[in-house]
């Protein structure tokens, strides 16, 4: 495990993070933003590799995770606020510009970091989740669209996550939750996770399956600790998004990403399917897309491939 530090980014709001200072001035610092149900630990292979190559590596636990500020009020989970928190970390560490990497829910603050503060970034790397420009979203319409387009609701499980008893059910059946989230069979997401009602059924019937081989016993224990501690704070990422918490802040934002972007998609990710983000290129003048034969946890499934792809792309843009 990495040695963590803590910093009060603003009064009463603390962030836990890992920081490896660069030892080669020609190489940038990478800001790693994780998703659900994860932590900075999901970037372990990248942090180990890039720190050894001389890059700086900064990986915070985002709101709701670890020892970072974890409010129970979903209205505190605004992307604009999180970006201000995240800007405070490079300020504290005397870093002027970073390359931002986001995975899963980490893509939300990663893209907004670049929208709000392009001058503090050199580039943006998105894993599995593509760029979604500011918009007011109707979840029912999204579910209908994905059902008609892909044959099932890609985000039907949000209904369960948004329910009052979801956190308790997660905490009581952590092993079953992690089985489906890190399944060795990615197609289970099409049948037992994504469609409406299926995740609740999986959890309440305490179903189990084989976990993916890339997750060692040690990895699993760390991830399991994440999902059994303060689950409601983590689910607030979904709840805040469902109620369009960012719309008032973002409705007048220029949606164009003014930095180079690398989008790494997983062809066996059956929820965040690459086709769902096909339109992102209209808002990203400088976009490179690479597809890997992975499910959702691309950086953990194929770390060597990811590290080579990322390093090659960084060398092109810096």
TrEMBL record:
Tell me one GO molecular function of this protein: epoxide hydrolase activity
Xref: Gene3D superfamilies = alpha/beta hydrolase (3.40.50.1820)
Instruction: Identify one Pfam family in the record.
Output: Abhydrolase_1
Query: What keywords were assigned to this record?
Result: Hydrolase
Q: Which residues form the AB hydrolase-1 domain?
A: 28-303
Family stated for the protein in its record? Belongs to the AB hydrolase superfamily. Epoxide hydrolase family.
Protein name per the record: AB hydrolase-1 domain-containing protein
């Amino acid at each position: 495990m990495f040695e963590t530090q803590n910093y009060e980014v603003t009064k009463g709001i603390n962030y836990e993070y890992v920081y490896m200072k660069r030892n080669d001035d020609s190489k940038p610092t990478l800001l790693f933003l994780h998703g659900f149900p994860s932590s900075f630990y999901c970037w372990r292979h990248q942090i180990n590799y890039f720190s050894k190559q001389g890059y700086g590596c900064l990986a915070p636990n985002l709101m709701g995770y670890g020892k970072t500020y974890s409010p129970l009020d979903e209205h505190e989970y605004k992307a604009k606020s999180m970006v201000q928190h995240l800007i405070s970390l490079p300020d504290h560490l005397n870093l002027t510009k970073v390359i931002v990497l986001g995975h899963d829910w980490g893509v939300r603050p990663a893209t907004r970091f670049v929208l709000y503060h392009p001058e503090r970034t050199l580039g943006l790397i998105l894993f599995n989740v593509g760029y979604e420009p500011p918009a007011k979203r109707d979840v029912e319409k999204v579910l209908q669209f994905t059902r008609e387009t892909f044959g099932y609701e890609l985000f039907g499980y949000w209904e369960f996550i948004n329910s009052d008893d979801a956190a308790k059910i997660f905490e009581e059946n952590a092993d079953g939750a992690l089985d489906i989230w890190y399944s060795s069979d990615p197609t289970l997401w099409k049948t037992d996770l994504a469609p409406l009602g299926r995740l609740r059924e999986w959890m309440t019937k305490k179903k189990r399956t084989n976990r993916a081989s890339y997750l060692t016993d040690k990895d699993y224990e760390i991830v399991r600790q994440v999902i059994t501690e303060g689950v409601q704070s983590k689910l607030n990422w979904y709840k805040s998004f469902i109620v369009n918490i960012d719309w008032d802040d973002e409705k007048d934002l220029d949606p164009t990403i003014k930095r180079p972007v690398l989008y790494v998609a997983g062809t066996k990710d059956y929820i965040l399917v690459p086709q769902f983000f096909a339109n992102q290129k209209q808002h990203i003048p400088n976009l490179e897309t690479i597809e890997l034969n992975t499910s959702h946890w691309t950086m953990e499934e194929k770390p060597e491939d990811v590290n080579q792809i990322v390093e090659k792309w960084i060398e092109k843009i810096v």
